[in-house]
Specification:
The protein is α/β, with parallel strands linked by helices. The protein has helices spanning 13-27, 63-71, 81-87, 110-121, 144-156; strands at 2-7, 31-36, 48-54, 94-102, 124-133. Strand 4 (94-102), helix 4 (110-121) and strand 5 form a beta-alpha-beta unit. The longest helix is centred in the first third of the chain and has 15 residues, at 13-27. The structure holds flavin mononucleotide.
């Protein structure tokens, strides 16, 4: 199976989740590429695509929220998951959306927003889990990487 993991991350936490999912996919025998959204192919050739984004303002990062992330010491690129989903040509690949969130009743979900946008664009998209971070800059919850690798293994099998 060919798998592509497309990621946006401003403080490194979602990037770690993406790598852990990729590890699990590889353990399941998949041929995996992990790529930032800005350099992800617009005509992806893959059986399975995972998109991973940090939750900003209850949904997917936007130009305004990225500005706030930069003010807070984060770094990244103008093109993130939102733009990639808007630009990429939908394929028959199964697309799974995951995110990182701060634990709260009102955290919202970038994965939910990504799934909605992906459906609108014509993808077959599932909403995967939200992985917890302790605050804007992290760190990831203690079990997050293990859970992400297990998700990769199950997606790849
Ligand atoms: C501008 C901004 C808005 C945010 N809004 C939310 C939010 O609505 N809900 C939430 O759970 N986390 C929110 N966060 C925290 C992010 O979820 C957290 O920074 C992210 O998960 C860390 O992932 P990263 O290291 O990959 O950027 C926000 C962070 C920033 C910078």
């Amino acid at each position: 199976m060919r798998a592509l993991v497309v990621v946006e991350s401003w403080f490194g936490n979602t990037a770690q989740i993406a790598e852990a999912i990729a590890d699990g996919l590889r353990e399941a025998g998949a041929d995996v590429e992990v790529t930032p959204a800005a350099s992800a192919p617009r005509e992806p050739v893959a059986d399975l695509i995972v998109v991973a984004a940090p939750t900003h303002n209850l949904g997917l990062p936007s130009p305004a929220s990225r500005g706030k992330a930069i003010e807070g010491g984060g770094s990244g690129e103008d093109v993130g998951i939102r733009e990639w989903l808007e630009q990429a040509t939908p394929s028959a690949a199964r697309l799974t959306c995951v995110d990182t969130v701060v634990a709260s009743m009102f955290s919202g979900s970038a994965a939910k927003a990504a799934q909605k946008l992906a459906h609108r664009r014509g993808w077959h998209a599932d909403r995967g889990p939200s992985f917890l971070v302790g605050g804007t800059k992290g760190p990831l919850a203690a079990d997050a990487l293990e859970t992400a690798t297990a998700l990769g293994r199950s997606l790849g099998s």
